[in-house]
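Sequence only, no structure available. Ideas?
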Amino acid sequence: MSDYQTDPFTKPVPPGGGMNGDAYPAPPQLHWALVLLFTLLTLGIFMIVWMFIQSTWVRKINPASNVTTQFAVYLVLAILGQFLVEGSDNLEAVGLVVMLASYVVFYFGAYSMRRSMLDHYNSVEPMQLKLSAAMVFLFSIFYFQYHMTRIARWKAASKLAI
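Reply:
I predicted one. Tokens follow.
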């Protein structure tokens, strides 16, 4: 027997009403091109803020997620690494290693966010979400935003259908 309650006249609904979106909030809905434009206009600052908005939303669908913490560690390491590279010739190599570590932490966070979204939108609120690992690596925040906007539209349409 399925984990979902079924009615012969409606679609399967996860426990807690997940299909109508009452149990979980819709993701942030901003077109990915606007995220890119605002990122370019603010010299990258908007992307930093937006990744925390995305990670906070992921925490709402997966309370066990630590993506926000990983992104905070990434930001601290990136700033520290940049400071070390520009501050002293003696610490330039250390700064480069710290910056490399910041990228590793960022991608751990990005792939953790990917896993949380896949788990949630393929089991709790099933919509057969597929997220390419390569696209996450290449475009991370923008790629997530493309899918988050799709999910928000899907949730709005499912609310209208009910």
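Residues 110 and 140 are 7 Å apart (CA to CA).
Hope that gets you unstuck.
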